[in-house]
């Protein structure tokens, strides 16, 4: 069965066909008209809640050498909970590759210990200048980053585009945030490529955030791999299907 730790059996979606876009026929006038008509009459309230874009990096929880750049499109459900649609770029053709949930330290403390192991901290990612909000003025970004540095995230990647998958294949993968230790450091060439494209400097952001307050502590159950040298992979296994619902 599928596993987030193994490349799926070769299929038309993951073979050496040129290009990165999903296989399929181009849009037609008919589908364009359908989309335009639906946009006029349907409510897109969940999408309209997305108010911020951040560009950062993520590492596969079962293989920290695999690192990707991500674009997070963020909506705030309340002051303790954010949800992010994660794309592989900020282009109109970007692929939706996963979802990240972000909780405050207060909410994280309430989670069961086994659940906490699936989450990562954001303090280093923010302080190191890796988390960037393109074109957002410092006056607006600074208080948001101060809050973000104290949060924890759980990021599931559902489309492993870095291995050439042109469709979402296999099991989802749990992702980790960059960290200051060797195994958790983002490759410098990846950071430079991102910075050059967005016209920013991670080093400048890092310097500008030196005085930013840090969390008093990072919960030891977060960033589990740092403490234990082990990651998590998802295996899809067969299970007996329940045909009778349990009595309430």
UniProtKB/TrEMBL annotation:
Q: Region entry Disordered: which residue ranges?
A: 1-27
The transmembrane residues are: none
Matching entries from InterPro entries are given as: OBAP-like
Q: What family is this protein classified in?
A: Belongs to the OBAP family.
PANTHER family for the chain: OIL BODY-ASSOCIATED PROTEIN 2A (PTHR31360:SF1), PTHR31360
Q: What is this protein called?
A: Oil body-associated protein 2B
